Amino acid sequence: MAVSPDSAAIEVGGLWKIFGPKAERVLECDDRYLEPTALREKTGCTAAVRDVSFEVRPGEVFVVMGLSGSGKSTLVRCLTRLIEPSAGEVRIDGEDIGRATPARLREIRRHRVSMVFQHFGLLPHRRVIDNVAYGLEVQGIAKAARHARAGEILSLVGLDGHADAYPDQLSGGMQQRVGLARALAVDPRVMLFDEPFSALDPLIRRDMQAEVIRLHREVGKTMVFITHDLSEALKLGERIAIMRAGSIVQLGTPEELVGAPADDYVADFVRDIPRSHVLTLRWICRPPEPGEPLDGPVLPARTIIKDAIGAMSSSSRPIRVVDGDELAGVVDRVDMLTFLAGQDAATAVQASA
Amino acid sequence: MSTTAVTTPSRLRVPRWAVPAGIAVLFAVAYLVFRGTGTLPHDKSAPQFLALTDLREWIDDHRNSNPLFLYFLNYIRIFVGSVYTAFQVGLYALGWPGLIGVMGALAWLAGGWRIALLALAGVGSFGVLGLWQSSVDTLALVAASVLLSLAIGIPLGVWAGLSPRVRRAIMPVLDVMQIMPTFAYLAPLVLFFHIGAPAGAIATMIYSIPPAIRITALAIEQVSPTAVEASSSLGATGRQTLFKVYLPLARSTMALAVNQTIMMALSMVVIANLISAPGLGGDIIRGLSRAQVGIMLPAGIAIVIMAVVLDRMLVALARKNPHHRIGGARLIPAAVLAAAGLALTPLLPAEWPEGWTVNFVVQVNDAVHWAETSWYGVTTFVKDVTTSLLLNPLEDLLTSAPWWLIAAAALLLAWCVSGVRPALTALGCLLAIALLGIWEHAMQTLTTVAVAVLVTLVIGLLLGVAAARSSRYSAVQRPILDAAQTMPAFVYLLPALALFETTRFTAIFASVIYAVPPVVRLVEDGIRAVPATVVEAAAAAGSTSGQLLWKVQLPMARRAILLAANQGIVMTLAMVVVGGLVGAGALGYDVVVGFSQRTDFGMGFVAGIATVLLGVMLDRITQGADRRPSPQRRKTT
Fold it and tell me: Which residues make Cβ contacts (< 8 Å) with residue B454, sequence separation at least 6?
């Protein structure tokens, strides 16, 4: 399977999943566009995923976020057909998953895509090392080799010395590290995370998020990350898809979501996020006015606004915002204060969008 | 490998299989060397047997002079007897139309017209089968023993439910009572209570009290502690809390206790016929001992019908909404039914009319004969292969090995599987069997049990796994299993007898179909209880369905499977012993002979005890397995 570097790692097109009797019949007619409650009343079916399309670039962290019941967990399971999609296409590295035979599908699950689960899904009757080696074991790799590999992965996730413990002897955070190690051990190209940290308490969750960011830097896997926690999504995601009632309502970078919510639903979601923590200078810079001094501090356009406050306060001159070598615009203290006061939001967004 | 964190220490490594293999070789060598020595052949007139026979003679002579009997046991006997007689007189006084009407009325009250129709048809069928009188006797015996069982079992159960100390004291006794094969009660009862209906009722009670106590205790335990706390916080006395909180909240589970008690009683009253209790059992035992399916089939059908009718009535009663009082809609038709039945009693002949019965003894016997001859090839093949490949070699092994070698093997096995204490118990049981002078027959029974358990487990695992993996298949299988579990045990002897005549194999076949349903159910439930996320995680890792089964589902269902094995063994033993009636020989046959011939009473008595000892031993060997943490874990901690 030759993969050209710029092709998408995962392509999803027109994906549907409808649960219930007569799901096929619902798909054929226009009933499928009914509102969820109306659909359930009329046909007894539930549309968990409705006409979802997106692409995930190789090496990207793609976050799908939504409240519970929005279909995000079903969506991620459709990617490797742990749940059989009702309609639509899923391609992983260009290969059509929907057409894969059971044997081929197993091959894909064994070597290419691995998954981390919300409730860990560890095997309580096996030691940690054997849990981590499980994926290799089902591939038929000899014991010595798979234990060696599992040992390496265990130290990568910081579980040295716990190889012989049983899962129920570990804390929740450590158990999820085992889950993570199990997914990593098979050296997949794509990792799927289904709300992996929502069962953990907040401090441990933060550690684990940092762990995922570090692993992503170190191993550079393509990751699809499901969460219902917006701050987690913003922290991890290069791009975020927000799902509601089975459909994607907005797909974009954290900046785009916070800066330009597509509708009231998304706006409501991101309302409590401090915008200065997500948006970059690009969103508030403006073309210099004639006669404005252009000798202030220089900052790149992708600097988060809150990080620019220090530079702003140390110089009375407007900050020059550069994109590469070009001047993208300037930001002075008035701009900054207006933004922080939250008044200029709409115009700033429109100016740059 | 040496660079990883998981290498085993590099000292001299003995492969994991070496120790067990070495021990096995040791036993094999010991067997070859000492073969034929230290065996304990069966002796019909062993001193132990004779002593017990004499004891019975002495007791029978002094039954009316010894104070223990005069002032205690005889009174129990008379009391139980009079309860039975009261029921019997009452049921006969209703007359057959009256009884049908009253049963229909009760069924209507319990569950509406469907159940009433079932009851009418069911009770009517006793007459149609030509078994009215023995059916009524059986009903009276069941009613008497269930009433007395509940009168003892429910208070004890409530007490055990309220007090953990009482529970801890009672539960081990119940455990032993439940693994005791039914046959084993009978001989001691004959000593103390003579034979006849009272002894039969008492035997039935012993068999049906354990579930009454156990389920009642469970029902009380399950009552929400918040409700109890609320009640006491309002100043209720213990008595008020019991009657106003515990009992009403435990009601529906306690209905299950009543149901179980009745089902147990129904299967025991038949066996109680061996000690001359009246009722349908007579036909069944007669049919079994003459190997005539035709004689026992009507009685078997009658008992199954009785079980189904009573079960449905009680289940309907238990499911009824407790907030719903019985209204006129049910009261009126029920009253009409009862009145109609009672009014017909004086008008119709007192006996069930001869012309209304259907007699199919001859046809059934012919059909069985046909089955025997036309399937002879298949059944004989199955029988002969099992006998020559499994039964005979194993029996040779067990009977020709020195007793101490077998005892040592049992000790070691129990020790490995369950730990020290169960191992010592198992050893004690074997030594007691040896001392009782019934070693050889016990080993023969053990052979039959071992083969039956093997077959049961193989079939049970296959069906259980199949059901766990396919919901559609499970939906077909479950009602069959449910039905199979409400049937009295010896009913399974019928098809076995029809197919295999009177041989050891008949008992094996019967015990396999008797023990398979609970095993299947436990295995299926165990596999289904494996958390969905774990299964999903394994699937996401690319496991084939075989890998999923062997690496995830079966290991995680280990406890349930071991419990299934334990259950299977206990049930198989009970059935193999009953199989003594149809040619299984050994202990079961000794028990039967003990009842029919006074001179062999001692042997029957000892054989009964030996079955209990065998049961306890097998239970102890297997039960520890599911209570102990997994072997790997023990090694690391």
Answer: B390
Contact A267, A261 (CB under 8 A): yes
| Of B613, B607, B578, B442, nearest in space to B508 by CA | B578
Residue to mutate among A125, A156, A162, A187, with most B CBs inside 10 A, is A125
Q: Where are the domains of chain A?
A: 56-81+97-270, 275-352
Give the C-alpha separation, A71 to B583, whole Å. 64
Q: Judge whether A274 and A250 are in contact, CB under 8 Å.
A: no
- State the architecture of B375-629 in CATH terms: Orthogonal Bundle (1.10)
Phi, psi dihedral angles at B366 (to 5 degrees): -65, -45
Across the interface, whether the CB atoms of A125 and B556 are under 8 A apart is answered yes
Contact (CB<8Å) A151/B5: yes
Residues 6+ apart with CB under 8 A from B392: none
Q: Are B313 and B119 in contact (CB under 8 A)?
A: yes
CB-CB under 8 Å, B3 with A148: yes
pTM to 2 decimal places: 0.73
* Class at the top of the CATH hierarchy for domain A275-352: alpha beta
B628 neighbourhood in chain A, CB within 8 Å? none
Give the Cα separation of A191 and A178 in Å (integer): 14
Task: State whether A122 and B541 contact (CB < 8 Å).
Answer: no
Residue intervals in chain B for CATH 1.10.3720.10: 62-321+331-351+361-365, 375-629
Residue A135 and residue A182 in contact, taking contact as beta carbons nearer than 8 Å: yes
Q: In chain A, positions 147-176, which contact chain B (CB-CB < 8 Å)? A: 147-148, 150-152, 154-155, 160-161, 163-166
Cβ proximity of A211 and A180 under 8 Å: yes
Q: How far apart are CA B181 and CA B571, in angstroms?
A: 8
End-to-end CA distance of chain B: 24
Q: Show the 3-state SS of A216-268.
A: HHHHCCEEEEEECCHHHHHHHCCEEEEEECCEEEEEECHHHHHHCCCCHHHHH
CATH of B62-321+331-351+361-365, picked from 2.40.160.50, 3.90.550.10, 3.40.1180.10, 1.10.3720.10, is 1.10.3720.10
Class of domain A56-81+97-270: alpha beta
Q: How many residues does chain B have?
A: 637
Interatomic CA distance for residues A296 and A292, integer angstroms: 10
Question: What ipTM describes this predicted complex?
Answer: 0.75
Helix axes B47-62, B182-193, angle to 10 degrees: 40
Which secondary-structure segment (H or E) carries B341?
Answer: helix B328-347
Cβ-based neighbours of B321, under 8 Å, separated by 6 or more: none
Token pair 């399309």 in the structure block, residue: A53
Contacts of B558 in chain A (CB under 8 A): 125
Comparing alpha-carbon positions, the chain A residue that sits nearest to B530 is A123
* CB-based contact B552 A123, cutoff 8 Å: yes
Q: Which residues of B touch A179 (CB under 8 A)?
A: 537
Nearest by CB to residue A151, choosing from B4, B536, B544, is B4
Reading chain A (353 residues) residue by residue, the pLDDT tens digits are: 444 445 788 999 989 988 887 777 777 777 777 777 788 887 778 888 888 999 999 989 999 998 888 889 899 999 988 888 988 899 998 889 888 888 898 888 888 998 898 888 888 888 899 989 988 888 888 989 999 999 998 988 888 888 888 888 888 888 988 998 998 888 888 999 998 888 888 888 888 888 889 888 888 889 999 998 888 888 888 999 999 888 899 999 888 888 888 888 888 888 877 887 888 888 888 888 888 877 888 888 888 888 888 888 887 788 888 887 888 888 888 888 888 877 445 444 544 54
CB-nearest to B541 from A77, A109, A166 is A109
